[in-house]
Amino acid sequence: MAHHKKKSQSPFPEAQEILTYLGEGSGASKRDIARAFHIRDDDPAHLKALLRTMIEEGLIIRDIDKRLRLPESLPPVLVVEVKGVDAMGDLLAKPVNMANKAEEHRIYIDPGRKRQLRVLGAGDRALVRLKENRDEDGLYYDAQVIKVLDAAPTSIIGVYSGTSKGGRIRSSNRRDKKDFLVEASDAMTAKHGDLVMAEPLPFRTRKALGLPRAKITEILGSLKEPRSISLIAIHNHDIPFEFPREVLSEASSLAGLPNDDRQDLTQIPFVTIDPADARDHDDAVAAIKDGDGWRILVAIADVAFYVRPGSALDTEARLRGNSCYFPDRVVPMLPDVLSNDTCSLVEGKNRPVMVMDARIDKNGIKSSHKFYRAIINSHGFLSYGETQEASEGRYSQKTKALAKSVIKPLYGAYQALKIARDARQPLNLDLPERRIELSDAGKVTRVSLRERLESHRLIEDFMILANIAAGETLEARSEPCMYRVHEEPSLSKLEELREFLKSLDLSLPKGQVIRPANFNQILQKAKQSPYADLVSDVVLKSQMAAYYSPNNPGHFGLALPRYAHFTSPIRRYADLVVHRALIRALRLGEGGLDHEDHQWFVETGEMISATERRAMLAERDSNDRYYAAYLEDKIGEVFEARISGVTRFGLFVRLEPTGADGLIPMRSLHHDYFHHDEKHHLLRGERTGITYRLADRIKAKLLEADQITGSLRLELVDDTANSEDSRRKHSKSRGKIQKYRKRRKASRAYRSKRR
Question: 595 vs 304, 549, 601, CA distance in Å?
Fold first, then answer.
């Protein structure tokens, strides 16, 4: 960088001269600038003030190493913090300790060929190496992770142990390896065993034992209370769970039926079919015989009539993105007065709805459809179980009255839709789903598999039909639409899958367009083999994550060219947006999109994709803690298990029958040194040749169940090899290893003696 010499009466350069100077290189320190402009040593304060002003105005930025540079460029190596994921599922990051202009830089974390030792998530920090790239939106950076750093948490949630004289907080984040010290003045009124929120104090205030200090900011209650477990997940993932007063007031004022011009469908026998414990009802269905085919009506709660764009309710719903479901509670997108009453399709009460009215032939092919607003009256709330029983001729008092007029036509229309579905061949991954059952005291009493019934398929197929129709209508009218997008697997994932399947004598077609039917054929071939679960797991891992976007690449998993969520506006903001778009497109009255609203569709799609991922992670974290609480009194027991993940630091296993996930650390596999074969999802012993592969059945002993973090620590039971031959080989190899270790020990002793 060239030296600049200022020759004016003032010994200080102008701001523009400093900008020009910094633009010639990759950054400079304050001392470099002083030297370049020959600023006297006795006037450092004036330069410091000038540079501070330039930073505050965003003209320059200061890196973590205190070097100054222009905001348009970033250094080749710096520390970043993960912000979250974009609509495509890629991790976005921002520079740490830089001016606010740093938010304008697009930085994507490069996952690399090998997984990081620890999966990065929002708030995590890493030292990265940047590579500049450009696309149609301008400059962006690919960030290759050099080292994952400890996150700098802004808040802590954990369990307090101590007295009024101070104590410790054990963090609920399993990445926090140390407790936090709390002095009496920072403990509020926390008691031993309380669940608390705290903020970490600066490093310079750390005290004895090398532990960081923290200050309690809120007492959430006792960990023994029924609702504490899900509270941890809610706070850890920053899920809004209390509605602002303005939102509650607005929701309470919205009562009564609309007086606009709607069709009266109160005489059509609509029913809602939901889980037995459902509190809100978005959708009601009806079917009527229509010649050789069927007329299918799907009525959806008209949330758009009550929640208008720009209102306090709308702002809060967009912020939340969706409802979150935990074993002990629901964190709703809309206040209870709307989600459970005003908008819910309650049995026996008139409710405003948006109706998808379609006609299909005997083979399930849709010939026409239309949307309109109406008033309906649900003739009954049925659970999936009692609907299924009624279809099989086992009637309750309620279903007996509805059997001929409601249930029989519904199943008739469903059989037609099933023909069309089978012809379309969507991806058929029928994965088990578990339900955590709680007592009144909040204790886990049982973990059971949710039964997969034909009545579930019936409702799914009716909803898919309505969602297809919504996407088609908006596309035909050139209106903005929030599509549910599921892209086909990437070429790299397909190639990895091919290599893996080859080891099982299964093949995935190459050189042709991949369709869900190709995966279904593989799943069917593997169904009767010992590798059925393994193949299902690997096919699932090869799929892309679904997201929301106004751009439409289609829905690969459902084998559909267009698909828009329309059927759950009480619990998903995406569906509310689609309702508003239909209202505007079809001129159905009040509550539609404004003319400018399509301009923020991309931003909204990204936001609700992120909130959906946030809810999924929070629900999973909550379930992990419930599993750990359930298993706390079973430490030392041996469980049948299945390997659910293979990494270079150990085996993730799923215990049966609970489905709880835990880790067998690599360091606990003492009988050999194991190499990680990422391509084939296995660990292979260097000396024994023993392999542990994804989906293998094993036996695992529970060593630790931590309710606070939701983690389980396990060890492999030695007699768990998959065959008698493997057990003999394992035993023989173990003998060889012992002899090898004895020779090594004797050799070291001999060398030591000679020295």
Answer: 16, 18, 12
Nearest to 690 by CA among 654, 718, 661: 718
What integer pLDDT is reported at residue 404 of this predicted model?
Answer: 93
Per-residue pLDDT reduced to its tens digit, 86-97: 656 677 888 875
Structure tokens at 188: 């509020």
Nearest-angstrom CA–CA distance, 326 and 442: 12
- How many other C-beta atoms lie within 10 A of the C-beta of residue 296? 29
Place of tokens 């306090």: 312
> Which value, in Å, is the radius of gyration of the alpha carbons in the chain?
31
User: What pLDDT was estimated at residue 720?
Assistant: 43
Rounded Cα distance between 550 and 564, Å, is 10
pLDDT-based confidence at residue 323 (cuts at 50, 70, 90): very high
Strand 156-163 versus strand 194-200 pairing type = antiparallel
Name, in order, each residue with C-beta under 8 angstroms of 14's C-beta and a sequence gap of 6 or more: none
Query: Phi, psi (5° rounding) for residue 211?
Result: -90, 145
Helix axes 15-23, 44-56, angle to 10 degrees: 80
- Note whether 154 and 199 are within 8 A (CB): yes
Strands 263-264 and 366-377: parallel
- Picking from 277-286, 302-311, 648-657, 721-730, which range would have the lowest pLDDT averaged per residue? 721-730
More confident residue, 356 or 165: 356
| Six token digits for residue 353 | 């709805």
Query: Cβ of 330: how many Cβ atoms within 10 Å?
Result: 17
pLDDT in tens, 480-534: 999 999 999 988 889 888 888 888 888 888 877 899 999 999 999 988 887 787 7
- Which bin fits 589, alpha (ψ -120 to 50), beta or left (φ > 0)? left
Query: With the CA atoms of 171, 173, 174 and 179 taken in that order, what torsion angle do they form, in degrees rounded to the nearest 10?
Result: -20
Mean pLDDT of the chain: 84
**What pLDDT does residue 534 have?**
78
Helix (H) or strand (E) holding 491: helix 491-502
Q: Which helix (H) or strand (E) covers residue 142, if one does?
A: strand 138-149
Strands 483-485 and 547-549, bridge-based pairing: antiparallel
Q: How far apart are CA 663 and CA 653, in angstroms?
A: 6
CB-CB contact of 580 with 588 (8 Å): no
Residue 42 — very low, low, confident or very high, per pLDDT cuts 50/70/90? low
* CA geometry: angle 7, 13, 15, nearest 5 deg: 145
| Pairing verdict, β 434-438 and 350-360 | unpaired
Asked whether the beta carbons of 417 and 465 are under 8 A apart, the reply is yes
Q: Which of 698, 707, 699 is nearest to 637 (CA)?
A: 699
- Cα distances (angstroms) measured from residue 272 to each of 236, 259, 390, 459, 598: 35, 24, 15, 10, 32
- The amino acid present at 441, given as its one-letter code, is A
| pLDDT > 90: percent of the chain | 48
Q: Map residue 557 onto helix, strand or coil.
A: coil
